[in-house]
Records
---
Amino acid sequence: MEELIIKFSSALGWSILHSLWFGFLIYVSVLCLFYVFPRLSASAKSYFPLLGSFALFGFFISVFIKGFLTKNTELTMQLSENPLQYPYMFVNTAESRFFIEPYFPVIVSVYIIGILIEGIWLVRSYFKLDKIKTTGLSSVPHSWQILFDELTEKMGIKRKVNFQISSFVEVPMMIGYLKPFVLFPIAAVNRLDMQQVEAILIHELTHIKRNDYLLNFLKVFVETILFFNPFIWLLGSLTEKGREYACDDSVIKLNVRRKIYADALLQLELLRKKDHHPLEMAAFYTKSDLFNRIKRIITMKTNYVNRKQKLVALSVGIIGIAAIAWTQPATSPLPPHLEIKEASYLPDHAIVLPIELTQVTEAGFITASRMNEIKNKVAKDTIWNNLQDSTVQYFQSPEWKSKIAEIEKNAQSLSESAKEIAAQFNSEEWKAKIKAQVEAGESLSKEWEEKLRSPEWQAKLGDIKNKAKFSEEMAKELAEKFNSEEWQAKIKKQVKDTERMSEELKAKFNSQEWKDNIEEIKKNAKISEEQAAKLTEKFNSEEWSNLIKKQMEQVEKIKEERSNKTN
């Protein structure tokens, strides 16, 4: 049991350490991809960081599983054949283990405590969202529902989507995957016009069409497991930005005016008071996100990575490289109290140096000269050494310095644009506009409140309640009447009479007398057809035409004679 705990602690400790540099590589790769291909769609820029998060999670799990299942003897034999197959910083000497592995129990304990805290927070958020889906809901206005159905059909969404007004949400959001809900805050009913509602609905329906809720659930799960890794949060931030930008692009592609959409987002910001749940798909999350999205909607510039993010990534990367390099064994000889015993466990990416029996002293130690010789041989041709040198040269090259200068220039331009927009938002005109809208909303709310409390409205409610009570009494009387034995007997009698009449009619229709009458009717119909044919032939004959013509001529003569007499 103790051996299993030690192996578990060692495997998990190495997984945690290696996930840091691997996360750095993935994050830098994503940034380089965005930099090399700046015209990637927002949808693609939301999926690449997400795939990077999944790759980092897979790497973390694979390192742990391989390390936990690999036996010490097998690991020693594999690595003894080729000690140069891994970077020298992970040499499994007694000195390197002395600096790293003693801290693994503490690291693993802190990790497990963090997992429990993250898990509790995630479960708590899930139950809160489940409560939002079941309580405080009301129907949307009829015109909104018609618009929602049209947009659902237009966007090709086959699943049934529930559209409700909620008293527990502050901004529009989408919740659920198998049974998705689109929830609007009740305060938005009097704040948004139909065009603004259409824009927000397109945004939320795009989340459903892209399966963002399911992907976000997987992202949150990965972030919970790798909560200690800063790069998983940076990748998650890029994923969220790309996801929201993709939905914004979908709104613009469906011919919604940019200004209308931006105004709708600003109106919703006035309703927002608190942070979001990790599993929800809200229209936006923070004021900073809203500011960047409105600027992007108006200008349609897609700058996903700002100067601050690049500098943070560079700084963390340099610190990570320095921290990993710190684990490199020193060139000084081994302390006399460190005895080399059977090779202890390390993951696949650690090196167990082959030890020749001739180089081991009688006391069981490696000689200092042989250790220095092996270290120099390993350090000479390692891939990591070349990568480290090339990285330093690249960061000192004119190309990198020009890129940094360009980033600073773009950041300055963005800062000036941000100041202009901030000045607009802080202007008296804008504040007066927002204040007027707030006052109009409050005035409308007060008017409705006064109307609902007025005696006239209370009288109408009383009348409605009385009518409802009267209707309920009538319904009870009818139910009692329909359930009475007298009514049931009457219904049975009517059913029997109907069945009897049906049998009589069936017998009559099948009788010979009825068939003879039908034949006589057919015969008379045939005679009528023959007479009609004869009349048609007569009326179409030349003799009949001449007779009609002659009569018309006589009529004309009579008219002329009368006309002459009159004159």
---
Amino acid sequence: MSEISPERLAAVRAALAQILASPADGRATLSNPGRMSNTLQDLLPDAPMEKMALVAAADDRLAERLASLFAQGLPPDTALRIASESLAAHTALTPQSCEWVSREIAAALGYLPQRGTPSAWAPADPGRGAPAAPGAGFGGPAGPGPGFGAPRPVGATDITVVPPSQQPQAPFGQPQQPQAPFGQAQQPQAPFGQPPQQPGVPFGAGPQQPGGFGMPPQPPAPYGPPPGNLKPPGSRRSAKVWAAAATAAVAIVAVVLVFVLRSGPTPTPKSNPKLAKPTVSTYHVSSGPLSIALEGTHAWISQTAPDRLLELNASDGTQVRVQSDGLDFPWHITAGGGNVWIANDRKNPGFVTRVNATTGGITRISGTFNGIANPTAVAVQGSRVWVANLGAESKTGFTGYGSVTELDASSGTVVKSFPGAKSGITYPVALAVSGPFVWVVDSGYHGGLGGVTRIDSRDGSTLTKTGGGYGFERPSSIAVSGSRVWVLNDPYRGRLSVTEINASDASFVRLLSGLQYEFGSYVKYLQYRAEGIAAVGDRVWVADPAGGSDGHGAVTEIDARTGGLIRVLSGAPYNFYTPDAIVANSSQVWVSEFGPKNAPGWITVLRSFR
């Protein structure tokens, strides 16, 4: 849960006003998610949730939909309802969040009057003081039928309705709540992920006691007897008193807008001080490490300049074998089934190398007839191997559609190909396997925000989730553990973030972002990172090339169960220097270090971290 202060709400409105101040491309920016994301990095640097909603609206072309609806002469409340319902259907935002962002964009475009700030509601416009006929539109004079977004009436329908400009809005992401009767305190919203409080807590009641994780809060102890001099809200007199009390209460108490996305507990910013401090081992290598693979008692590291495949004992880092044949910029490697698989991507169209983990024997798989075209990532799924391909490349760049190739692990022959033109994959850069599912990270192409595609290996069906509604922004890496999938977003501008989704249906869980994670920013020369995030059991680790206390990089450890920060490892004794790839098993975490300029880099291994 994130609170929107009056200052942040004002910043959102100022950002929209500044975007629209450009007559050439202001409105176009509202429907361009990539441009919107880049612009809001500067205008809303400390409002990641608000930015996420606005980018999701741009991805769904909400501004264009609003323009079309208002051009048809629809009543404002109808136009807003249609637009917000469409946004909710296409994104992971809650319906209430969609109402909020629809209202703000409509007001910025001039279709509606601007609502007041949450802490001091603006007085009624003198020009709107007279009551109107029943069913007045949103933002206009109020009649017995309140407009879209007005508080829901309680009791009979003959109550006196306060005009919308005088009514406090419900916290963003929460359903509208009726005002408390005169003499009673307005009920606070329940914490994110917990059911709302029951109405009727007497005025002056003590603060509620927080419940355990996932449990409702304990009711506060009452202060004095409940008032008994109030008529039921069904009468006209009591409704007038109720409305007057609401207006007076809002003038005294600052109201906080709550921005809520899909259900899920908020991250806890504090780490556990009782955690064991990991032991640190450093293994220096002769050339730049690119990727790491772990299987059993061995670890493999791919290197470039020169290209090599280094095999080490995972227990002590001693060297087992060095191999240089059959490699050409070994961008990503994985191990499984007694083989090491390598995606080589220096020369168009690239190729895949299979190395026998026991004998070192090499098999090269290449050619468009095998569906291999500039491979970026490989993943093993039992007797199958999956390859992500950027696709054909010409003098002007890639065609804009990549593909995924399924290979038989024993023969290297193609089982099936998933062309991006049919599956919606444009720029695949990372893969992960979870049971029968293969997850493909699409980093987006030509300004797109990117997303993920889940392939069901049993029947070849695909499920794609894209856009700002999931917080996707140039996703580069993916990790799977249990029932959850984590996707690392590495935007060109702004800090890293992690999107968590359900493995069962690819539904949104939460976006992990904010200063508590100490995430750094994009590092240009690292380009895409297929192994920037790892997950095992109840832990998620993020390799952050520009994070940490010294800015040289860090590893962020996250609780997979709650999304809460456990700790940020940086500085001595870790001495991370632009950490790039990260892999983990139940007892070790391996991190590749790009190192200072003109240095060969090294591998850092963390053990005994529980």
